[in-house]
Amino acid sequence: MELRRLAVVLVTVVALGGCAFVERADVRNDGTSPAGPQDRASGLSISADGQFFLFATPAALDPSDANARDDVYRRDLSNHVTKLVPLTEDVPTRGFTMPANAPNLVVFASTHAYTSDDTNNAQDVYVYDIDHNSFERVSVATTGELPGVLAADLGAVSADGNVVLLGLDHNGGSRSYAVRDRAAGTTTDLVLDPDQTPLGVTDDGSHLLLAGNNGIPTAVLDLASMTENGPDCVMRTPWLSGDGHYVVGMVEDQGTCPVGLARYDLATQQYEVLSVPLPEAQTDVAGVDDVGNVALLHLNDGGGRYFAASFLSKTSGEITFGGVPARPGHADSAVLSADSSIVGLIAPTGFPGVEPDQGEAGVYAHNVLPVTVGVPDITSLPAGGDAHLVVRIEDSIPGIDTVDMGPGVTAQVDQLLDAGPGAQDIGIQIHVDANAAPGPRSIRLVEGHTIGFSVGICGDCFTITPAVQTS
């Protein structure tokens, strides 16, 4: 029997408070929280890697916060630092966000004049730089003011914070949209169908997602050529992957269209449907990762339940803590990090067992994907063959004694090697039976808690792919 060695795959465990899968974010620097049941956070956004959380809360997480009203905070989960963002009290209700790859920036709308050039007495959109304590007004024309605009509100923002989508309310009650390129200093008006609404933007700010209404299909607008591409089926709750390759959404029965959770490949113009055990009419897409592989789903039945689904591993599962769903009224809202490693949740009654926890409302980081698999260079392995896999875990996990891959596959740990401070290489010997059933599998390394990633066994090959783990 031929022995082949799979290429080394680097696997990163996102470390949030050791091995915990859930960590509270709306806390003071000392880890305590003054939040009570009435202190409902809002406006959550998170950085691409899930390290930074931005949200508003009436809870005073900083000694200088004495107004008993909603204020904007940024929490650094790595350094355990919570920072009060110096914005006026109207910002939480008018909209704010943090660009995924620029956690030093806050983009927001306000009626307050933050810069000397703001003399229009209207709501404007600004970018605040936390590191430099500076403000920039972006709801402006390429030259001068936006003509006839009563108010500007915040739309989508590119990952680097350079491209900002503006919603504009005009005299006479009409509404339009424009795109501000901060680096170029230009503002471009968008000419859209009345039944099109811009919802998202790619990481580089080059393309916009246009949601369709009244039978108008979802489209993706190239901002350079002003041409549209996209699925020919109407998608409900569509999302554009940050790399601009996929549109992910719920497709309802339209005759020749696929039905259910689907992603549309803008290059090949093909749909891929993922079966999930949820009622289609009540399931919304609440987020998608940067490359369109993982979707965050919301079961819209009033219970506040969220699920994660992977197009690569063909699996899905409810967002839980320790295998137990959170208390009833699970989450007011949830967001998925661009790298799919973290889901940020606003849970009105908290997560059981996550300190500090007295059943009050809170903001939580949930490690949905404990193991993030890098893009591997796969060596083909026919069914009935052997392989050796080396996994690097950036968190020491001593005493791993169980590896489970399900029927037809035998796997065992044969080496544990020190890979430097806080890291460990785990060698796994794998044998695939000749009659192993095709389909996705999960490697589960068990030692007190479970970490894992999934593999797919097809008719004549053995492949490794990332997967969603919700244990």
Rough outline: globular
Q: The biggest beta sheet, please?
A: 6 strands, mixed
Low-confidence stretches: 1-20, 321-329, 369-381, 394-398, 446-471
Radius of gyration: 24 Å
> What share of the residues lie within helices?
under 10%
Query: N- to C-terminal separation?
Result: 36 Å
Q: Could you tell me the mean pLDDT?
A: 79
SS field, number of helical segments = 1
The counted number of beta strands is 38
Note down, in words, how this protein is organized.
By secondary structure, this protein is mainly β. Helices cover 1% and strands 45% of the residues. The chain has one helix and 38 strands. It has one helix at residues 91-94; strands spanning 3-5, 9-13, 22-24, 42-46, 52-57, 71-76, 81-84, 96-97, 105-110, 124-129, 134-137, 149-157, 163-170, 175-181, 186-190, 196-201, 207-212, 219-222, 227-229, 235-240, 246-251, 260-265, 270-274, 283-288, 294-299, 305-310, 315-318, 333-336, 343-347, 362-366, 371-373, 386-393, 402-404, 409-418, 424-432, 439-447, 449-457, 462-465. The strands form nine sheets. Strands 1, 2, 31, 32, 34 and 35 form a six-stranded mixed β-sheet that branches. The protein has a four-stranded antiparallel β-sheet with strand order 3-30-29-28, with no helix packed on it. Strand 18 and strand 19 (227-229) form a beta hairpin. The longest helix has 4 residues, at 91-94. The chain is globular and about 75 Å long. The model is unreliable at 1-20, 321-329, 369-381, 394-398 and 446-471 (pLDDT under 50).
